Amino acid sequence: MAALDEPIAISALQHAVYCLRQAALIHIERLWEENRFTAEGRVLHDVAHTAGERKTKGVRRVTALPLASARLNLTGVADLVEFRRDGDGETAFPVEYKRGKPKLHRADEVQLCAQALCLEEMTGRPVPEGALYYAEPKRRTAVLFDADLRRLTEDTAQAFGTLVAEGRTPPAIWRAARCRSCSLIEVCRPKATARSATEFRRRAIEALLDDDLGAGP
Amino acid sequence: MKKLLNTLYVTTEGAGLRKDGENLVAEVDGAERARLPLHRIGSVVAVGAVYVSPALIGALARGGIALVLLDRQGRFEARVEGPVSGNVLLRRAQYRAAEQPEEIVRSIVSAKVANQRAVLQRALRDHGDDFAPERRSAVEAAVERLARILRRVAFEAGGVDVLRGAEGEAANLYFAVFDDLIRVPDPALRFRGRSRRPPLDAVNALLSFLYTLLTHDCRAAAEANGLDPAVGFLHRDRPGRPSFALDLMEELRPVLADRLALSLINRRQLSTRDFETRDGGAVLLTDAARKTVLTAWQERKKEERRHAFVDEVAPLGLVPHLQAQLLARHLRGDLDAYPPWFWK
To answer: In sequence order, which residues have a C-beta less than 8 Å from that of residue B190 and are 6 or more positions away?
Structure first.
């Protein structure tokens, strides 16, 4: 991990696993295009992010819990962590609130797993599973923090941390399915940035000069 | 495509602007005259004595909506903005590029000369038969000489000073025949060479006002994309001068401002009554004329064109924003050059 004076936001990892360039545009370039999806997500979070604690039947429910991992250089706030009494102590069970439906890519799972890695470091106890609460089925989807997911989460944190440390934005790679539903497509311009602007300038001017018989605009 | 947000121009003396919920409310003599949701507004330009409530100033700053104060003559007085936005790495890249600005300047000057030439070609094509023969050949000669300058700027080596020289040469050629594009016989509406601070004839007064409006939009476009409006490439840094906003404006001037000035005069939307001459010869637009110009300006910005590089249809009013965005992408290493805007 490159040396960093600022930890990385856990919420950035969901962008980073979806697309490293998207994460760089948001967190390094500081570009943020709010579209309908992100606006709805924000409203949902405003509700979930009110700090509090409730206790029912041996489960302590803590909302808006600050999290950090020194090892992965991460920081963030969990929507909800349930601390479940078992045997000699409590096992943390993070729950993240999401707009819409469960997704085919693993961005939400990575974000949740990063919370689990933080909780493990902070509590010194294993965090084997958590849940994503999706607004559309209004139901929890259980997430098991297996070796694959942990590796993907750590690799993503590392790759994104390197970009942040170097202040670098990776080039765009057009991937139709992802690009079309990306809220940053108009600042990323994955198709235009693949073109040569020098070539564009040369050809445009040659065309204008060839066009001397008055076609013009 | 990003939405073209409204610029609200308030030109009524004594008008008051205040915030009501998430709306901007404009009042004249205590009566509500307009109500606009803040999320539909890109910037607010107050001309002359207009009162703006502190609550509204705060809401505009928070929302990243520029508030600009112009005096009655349309000269810039002040600008209220929120915290500096954007990316310090981009600004540093802009400052570094400003030390070696040659290729960016080449793009800007190429497009400016090409677009000036296009304005002349367009006039020849649309109204060539109305020209007196010697005037027609003068404009044709200017088109040809601008083509030579364009070829030189685009394809021959030459540092920034050579490019700046070519830009000046092109401007002289272009403005030398600009009067030939005015098709009304009125002697008070002739163009007698470029003059500013103060403008000495009606056409210059009109051009200066349109350039002020365009500078404002270019400055807003620079800031919205995280660029420093004061650090230019073609324009040298000078304290208090928005050099980069002026750079951004160069390619757009002929199309967005000059052609609009010509059509306002040629379509007789403005006449000699719309200008007043002060002692000493300064010529100013009347209050009523400024409203005519602002309305035409807003309409012109809605006209759509295909952007040749981005390959999307966009309203002309978004072109400063797109160009600032493309320059930012070039500075951050996404694009091998700054792709200029050619009017087609």
So the answer is: B179, B182, B201, B203
pLDDT in tens, B43-100: 888 888 899 999 999 998 888 788 888 887 667 778 787 766 668 899 999 999 999 9
Q: Are the C-beta atoms of A118 and A10 separated by less than 8 Å?
A: yes
Token look-up 């909800």 returns: A80
Cβ pair A14, A108 in contact under 8 A: yes
We report the CATH number of the domain holding residue B128 as: 1.20.120.920
**Pairwise CA distance, residues A217 & A208, whole Å:** 10
Return the residue matching tokens 């962590």: A81
- Determine, yes or no, domain membership for A16: yes
pLDDT tens column, A72-86:
999 999 999 999 988
Nearest CA in chain A to B108: A201
B59 with B110, same domain: the answer is: no
CB nearest to A217's CB, from B122, B325, B329: B122
B32: CATH: 3.100.10.20
Give the CATH number of the domain where residue A189 resides.
3.90.320
Tell if the CB–CB gap between A216 and B325 is shorter than 8 Å: no
Which residue, among B181, B196, B203, B199, has the nearest Cα to B271 in the 3D structure?
Answer: B203
pTM for the predicted model, two decimal places: 0.80
Interchain CB contact of B8 with A (< 8 Å): no
List all residues 6 or more positions away from A6 whose beta carbon is below 8 Å from its beta carbon: A164
The total number of structural domains in chain A stands at 1
Note whether B59 and B199 are same-domain residues: no
- Nearest-Cα distance to chain A for B283, in Å, is 32
Please give the structure tokens belonging to residue B196.
Answer: 């500013």
B155 CB neighbours in chain A (<8 A) are 202, 205
**Which residue did the predictor score with more confidence, B129 or A142?**
A142
